[in-house]
Structures are given as structure tokens and as C-alpha cells.
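Exercise 7.
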Amino acid sequence: MITPLMIQYSTVLCIFGLMGVSTAHAVAENSADPLLKWETLAQNHARVSPLSVAAPLGRLVLVRADHSLCAVRFLEFHRGHDAKPATAFNSGNESLWATAEEVQIEGSHKTVGKPEVISLERGPVVGLGRLGFAKGNIAIRCGGASLEWTYPNNISLGSYTQSPNYRKAVEIAPSAWTEVSQMDLKDPMLQWYRYDETRHDIVLNMDNLAGSSGR
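Solution. The predicted structure, written as C-alpha cells, is:
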């Protein structure tokens, strides 16, 4: 069972506490900072894009991949606000971090092994041309599959460079559950998503997610 951990909220939560949700969304939409919108949405909304899925912060996102079922819960995310002008040897990208808890599941509720806390990081690309590399870890593993994390709390459904068969084998479902013991895989509101380049972005509030009735 995923053990409860204190969720370390990012600075954007101050906006929620002081201004309220609707005002926070307006601030995010009008901000010159492109990541603020996604940080704000991540607090209480799920997001489904053509290439990735995210559950609200602190809520379970279920992953089916490589004949395995896993549950991932993002606990916090933050960034360095340290972007720099790019050079020939450094992309200058801002440093990004997140912490998630992941567990493999057998059947509907039985966990396999202990939950694993994953530290995720994406830094600037350092080096020249093809010799360049990015510092950090962006991998979330479920069974034998390795899925990419993107900031703030998105899990990749695959990429165009991977085979269609691989992409079809990965399914991800956002939920409002906070613990594996709450899961009900027969919940009619549980929606699984696959890689789909034609899909438009979907934003779902908590009431539209599986497990919302018991939260």
C-alpha cells in the first residue's frame, strides 16, 4: 500500500491560499511564465495530452505497461528558476525536479514489494552536438517499460520514435484516489488513455475522475 507522505506543495499553492482557485487560473493564463499554467492546473486537475497523462498532485495515476500494473503518485515538484542564455556547450534550460512514489500492483489492490520513492530531475543539456547529455533522471519504470517524466507531473505515453506496437501497449489512467487500497478498477469513471497524436489536450477536474465520490 502506498504510505501517506506529506505533500510538499510548490510556491504556486500560495496563490491558491491567498487568491482562490479562479483567480489563480487567471494569473497563470496571463503569466509570461509558460510553466506556471501547468503548475497551477496540476494542483487539482488531471491533464491528458496527445503524448502524456497527469493526475492531480497527490493522486494516483495508474499505468498499464509490459503486462504490468503500477500506481504512481507525485508528491511534489519544483524548479530552479536558473535558466541562462544558451551557449555552444550548454542549452541553458531551467533545472526541473519532482518526487513521486511508485508501486507495482498484483490484481486490484495487492502491492508487490515496497513503494519506491523516485527522485526525478531534468537539467540543461551540456556538451557539444551529439556528445551533449542532460543531467538527471526522467525515467518512471513499470514492469520492463521505462516511461518518461515531463515537468511538472506528466508521464509519457511514448514517442513517435518508438514502434506502434510499443505505444499501443502503454495505457495510463488518472484518478482521484490517494491510496492503492481505495482503487476500484471497475469504476465506470476510470478512463484509460493511449498515445494519440490526433487528440487535443483534455483537462479534467477532480469530480470527473475515478474515485472522486469517496475523496
